[in-house]
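Example record

One chain of 220 residues, shown exactly as stored in the release files.
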Amino acid sequence: MGVPALKVRNGLSEQTGPRAVEVRALTFGYDRQLIFDNFNFATDARSTVVRGPSGCGKTTLLKLIDGFLRASPPAYIERPEPVFLVLQADGLAPWLTGRGNIELFSKELWAKVRASPLFAVIEQFAERPAHTLSFGQRRSIELVRALVSGYPLLLLDEPLNFLDHERRATFLAHMSDPNLCPSRVIMTSHYEEGDTSWAADVFEFIGDPPYGELVPKDAR
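Predicted structure tokens for this chain:
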């Protein structure tokens, strides 16, 4: 059986259907800038990349799918539950070690990380306080924490930022292997390798806001 999805409409939810992500009739903006106007988006791919220029609304879309932001009037959003959102902003508690930040979720998650091939990426600095780590090291801790979590939906906002080519390749290879990462992944990326080195459906923000849809890359 597939992982159930959560339909959210007007504050009500129900378990339903396959592991898909769908957004319908979404209207949302900041102050006087409307970002989405009756926006619709759907993907049933295991891996999806959303591309577009800085400030176009990629991060906002992930936050709305996650529920971190809520539209008014409410939109229809279907997604698997639970959701693991990794934003561009540093999401680690600076006074805790890398291991401590992982164990914030559960002791069991740290055990899973230790048993994962990704542990080799963070092994040398996992016991250091987060505030002593480089941007790339902190991002690596966050990505390992998410990718090993087993959550059915991972929303990754520019996850390749701050990583060198070797680490980017390692994380993309892990995400592309359903045996290692069974989660559905939606990620934003400025890196071409984010959508060319693994089997991902690619959607793009075209033009200026407000947006009514994302355009499949192959449809351009």
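Notes: The chain has two domains: 5-81+201-219, 86-196.
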